[in-house]
């Protein structure tokens, strides 16, 4: 026997004001064997969105079929080449200009997951429900959180919002209804507290008082942890130790972010406790998403890396110019080079996170194997604001549904919504029509 005692799949470590979900353990095999899909890990979907387009000259492979030499911006994904599918010629016609639209940047991000032409009226905004929320509405009851919305920047804090409707579109990927966006969580501490039940958001003064007396969440569940460990076999004990260590590391990073002076000036105000360094902030948020996937706290995530139209500078890589102005480079080589550097820097952070998902095992595979993670943008050429042939890569195999390691080129003007409609199928959420979809996306499956 591998374990001394069988565990329910939804076992929690509980303590005063805290509850921690567990990763898939061997001891849960009996419970999983009696489920509808014996021993099969859940499929997840996530959308990782970067703003202002991508330098397509350094993104697009020059060939079709099996991935070989990767272009410059995709180079950070070299260790993940067999897990990546590059899709070409997908288009968001809904991002193109309307007389009553929300501006090019607002349209491309606001419509990215809805496939609906976003509008403004005299008094309100108008969009549609996003594909992530369609899935969350159908399967969300199976997890503690139907979906997670995460981001790194808000236009309002940067002072770049000219109106409420513009902010609504540039700041949000997820839409619960035509008029209700789901704003992303930006503060790592707020995301941690949401995931692990450590209390409501506090003011900086209240947080400082709390920090003085703070204990690790693991302290609160130590009694349950010891009881559980006594009933686990060696493999499960190791897996549990690694999982709890990752939670403690997140706590350590949060404490560091809240007490250290910012080493890098991002050129904008930051909420309390948020690292000024982009890479540190990104790592904190993605490590918590990883824990959420490991413990099956959610299966649906949207991640707005930075909001659309951002003028953020990346001084940590030697670029003091704003991202958005750089993308309007007018074909000047020195400005185009800086855009390519920013694009590559973003890709490197994503690659590091995806590598952790690939190394995290469950039910004989990896979390990445059981995921569909879309990485891309709502613009292709940021200089001309083009909405066709959008930079799009899908990582993972969707639980065995996706044949990865390829570049697939579709007919020009193929709706991006076709991809999202296909992904909803893979999440076992069947809808007849979505956004401007013209059908399912062919050539993505193993078959």
Q: What secondary-structure arrangement, pairings included, does this model have?
A:
Layout: E1 12-15, E2 18-21, H1 29-33, E3 44-49, E4 65-66, E5 84-91, H2 104-110, E6 119-120, E7 125-126, H3 131-139, E8 148-151, H4 155-158, H5 164-170, E9 175-177, E10 180-181, H6 188-196, H7 204-212, H8 217-220, H9 222-229, H10 234-259, H11 278-294, E11 300-304, H12 323-327, H13 333-359, E12 361-362, E13 365-366, E14 371-376, E15 392-395, E16 406-415, H14 416-426
Parallel strand pairs: 3-11, 3-14, 5-16, 8-11
Antiparallel strand pairs: 1-2, 4-16, 5-15, 6-7, 9-10, 12-13, 14-15
Helix pairs in contact: 2-5, 6-11, 10-11, 11-13
Structural class: alpha/beta
**Tally of individual helices:** 14
Mean pLDDT: 85
Number of separate strands: 16
Beta percentage is: 5-15%
What is the string of helix and strand elements?
Answer: EEHEEEHEEHEHHEEHHHHHHEHHEEEEEH
Helical fraction:
25-40%
Would you write up a description of this structure?
The chain has 447 residues and is of the alpha/beta class. α11 runs parallel beside α13 (333-359). The chain has one domain (21-426). The model is unreliable at 34-38 and 261-271 (pLDDT under 50). It has helices spanning 29-33, 104-110, 131-139, 155-158, 164-170, 188-196, 204-212, 217-220, 222-229, 234-259, 278-294, 323-327, 333-359, 416-426; strands at 12-15, 18-21, 44-49, 65-66, 84-91, 119-120, 125-126, 148-151, 175-177, 180-181, 300-304, 361-362, 365-366, 371-376, 392-395, 406-415. The protein has an eight-stranded mixed sheet, with helices on both faces. A two-stranded antiparallel ribbon has the order 1-2. Strands 6-7 form a two-stranded antiparallel ribbon. It is built from 14 helices and 16 strands.
């Amino acid at each position: 026997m591998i374990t001394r005692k069988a565990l329910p799949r939804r076992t929690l470590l509980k303590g005063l004001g805290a509850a921690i979900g567990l990763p898939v353990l061997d001891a849960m095999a009996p419970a999983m064997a009696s489920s509808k899909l014996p021993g099969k890990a859940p499929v997840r979907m996530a959308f990782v969105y970067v703003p202002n387009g991508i330098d397509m000259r350094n993104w697009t492979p020059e060939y079709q079929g099996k991935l070989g030499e990767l272009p410059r911006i995709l180079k950070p994904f070299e260790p993940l080449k067999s897990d990546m599918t590059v899709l070409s010629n997908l288009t968001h016609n809904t991002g193109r200009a309307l007389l009553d639209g929300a501006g090019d940047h607002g349209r491309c991000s606001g419509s990215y997951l809805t496939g609906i032409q976003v509008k403004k009226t005299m008094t309100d905004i108008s969009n549609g429900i996003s594909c992530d929320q369609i899935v969350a509405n159908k399967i969300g009851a199976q997890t503690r959180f139907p979906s997670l919305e995460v981001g790194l920047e808000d236009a309002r804090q940067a002072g770049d919002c000219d109106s409420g409707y513009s902010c609504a579109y540039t700041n949000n990927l997820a839409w619960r209804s035509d008029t209700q966006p789901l704003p992303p969580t930006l503060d790592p501490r707020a995301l941690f507290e949401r995931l692990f039940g450590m209390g409501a958001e506090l003011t900086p003064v209240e947080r400082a008082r709390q920090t003085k007396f703070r204990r690790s969440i693991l302290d609160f569940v130590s009694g349950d942890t010891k009881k559980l460990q006594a009933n686990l076999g060696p493999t499960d004990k190791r897996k549990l130790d690694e999982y709890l260590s990752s939670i403690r590391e997140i706590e350590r990073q949060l404490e560091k972010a809240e007490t250290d002076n910012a080493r890098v000036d991002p050129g904008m105000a930051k909420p309390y406790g948020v690292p000024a360094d982009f890479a540190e902030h990104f790592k904190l948020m993605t490590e918590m998403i990883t824990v959420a996937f490991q413990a099956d706290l959610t299966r649906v995530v949207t991640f707005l890396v930075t909001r659309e139209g951002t003028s953020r500078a990346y001084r940590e890589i030697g670029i003091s110019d704003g991202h958005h102005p750089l993308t309007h480079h007018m074909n000047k080589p020195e400005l185009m080079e800086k855009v390519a550097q920013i694009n590559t820097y973003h890709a490197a952070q994503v690659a590091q996170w995806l590598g952790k998902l690939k190394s995290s095992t469950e039910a004989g595979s990896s979390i990445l194997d059981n995921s569909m993670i879309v990485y891309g943008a709502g613009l292709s050429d940021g200089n001309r604001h083009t909405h066709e042939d959008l930079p799009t890569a899908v990582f993972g195999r969707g639980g065995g549904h996706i044949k990865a390691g390829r570049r697939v080129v579709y007919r020009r003007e193929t709706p991006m919504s076709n991809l999202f409609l296909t992904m909803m199928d893979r999440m076992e959420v069947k809808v007849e029509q979505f956004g401007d979809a013209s059908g399912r996306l062919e050539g993505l499956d193993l078959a």
